[in-house]
Amino acid sequence: MNKTGKYEFIAEPFHCDFSGRMFLGHLGNQMLNAADFHSTDRGFGMKYLMTIKRSWVLSRLAIEMTEMPEQYERFSVETWVESAMRYFTSRNFQVTGSDGHVYGYGRSIWAMIDTESRQPTDIFSIENGAINKWIVDDKPCPIEKGGRVKMSENTEFVRVIDINYNDIDINGHVNSVKYIEHVLDLWDIAWYREHRLKRFEIAYVAEAHQGDKLSFYREQTAENEYCVRLVKTIPSTQTETEVCRCKAVFAQILKSEILKS
Which of 146, 172, 187 is the last residue of a domain? Predict the structure, then answer.
């Protein structure tokens, strides 16, 4: 079995926005699917981990795209483990079209937790460090790693939302991709008619659960660059905790591109 895994998907119409291209959230889901397929085939995936009360949780994700797959188009997500340490492992992604051209790349950091204590656990304890034999440290991923998202105190409060049933995943907390979708909803369709999302970074800090409320604070940090901080409020105690931070980098869509679309 190859150290890298490559999995084919299709850009289904109901996973695409008004422009006929995939939502970033749905592409993120397919990246996470590819990660699960790859790890499961090699003996350290969620299917096995759940039997020993372990689980993978996403710590950081950075996605950088030159364009997004169009509706009905078949595309592939290739993924591989770049490195592994005791408590964290890095995994990369490459998204290619059916003709082989590259749409973009992704970088991610994962932790393994004990599902009862919710604390990090030793990755190398699984099958005597089996993950080590699947590391690919010589395959390039030509995008920057996700860095620390720095924000000042001059942030704009944008909105607060309730966390509901559809936000929660198999681990009992808000699904990693749901945060991305909620953040990208901070801009309206008029914005997306003139801008495309070039790069998105998210760093997860704490878990949020059904019944919590999420507050969104946004700050423009450069031209077409915004940082967003998400804070959860637990209604029963009114305590606030930062849940994650994101950075969204947009590119202006040329008039010729708008006319073409």
Answer: 146
CATH number at residue 130: 3.10.129.10
Is the CA virtual torsion 15, 20, 24, 29 positive or negative? Answer: positive
pLDDT in tens, 14-61: 999 999 999 999 999 999 999 999 999 999 999 999 999 999 999 999
Residue 142 phi/psi, 5-degree rounding, is: -80, 35
Q: Is the dihedral of CA 206, 202, 6, 11 positive or negative?
A: positive
pLDDT in tens, 170-219: 888 999 999 999 999 999 999 999 999 999 999 999 999 999 999 999 99
- Name the residue range of residue 136's domain: 1-146
Q: How many domains does the chain have?
A: 2
The predicted model scores a pTM of 0.94
